[in-house]
Amino acid sequence: MDIFDYDYNLLKQTRLAKNISIENIAFDLCLAVRQINSIENNLLDHFYSPAIKLVCVKKYSEKLGINIDVVLFKIKKEEVLEVEIIEEESAVKLYEVTISNEIAIDDHKTSKTHRSTKPRNECHIIIELSEEYIKNNLSTKILMSDLTRLTGYSERSLQIVFKKHLNKSPTKYIEERRIFKARELITEYKQLKKISDVAREVGLPHLGRFSVNFRKYFGISPSALANS
Fold it and tell me: Considering 73, 96, 119, which residue would you say is the last residue of a domain?
């Protein structure tokens, strides 16, 4: 797997040359100001993982109109070990970082967000980050605090962003992802995998509740689908 670094100075200098404030770029990308600072100063803070940070770097580049190939470059193989050591030493810091409630949008800007007609593809990084995390953690208990730590947004702001772009709350979105993943697994394995095992795999260990919700979504019980 290739490992990339990026020209963070180019991003910062381009933003300044275009006279775009750090607050505005953060708001446009649905990121926190501290996350933009992390990108522009090549810090390891305020992102759940380097991979997620890289997604944000790409979006930032697009917003500034810079070709991503100019911004990204591969790290030489002999440098990879050094990068891994740095990331390992920073792991504790990444997970223990205290996320304050300062976010890129204050209450006034939140109101603007409700009125905005901006296309979804210009304001959906927070959704992308949350979706990826939820997708990869369906088998475990996902708390709102996990998403706030991941995105840097407060719980209230996450509710607003999810409602605006997905027309549902984060909790409802997680429930739907679990149920749809369960249908996918049952369709794939049929009777080769127990319904109870599927339910646990998608983070819904209460079999009775799982069956009720499954029927509510798809009009058929999990066992009936497995036998079809």
Answer: 96
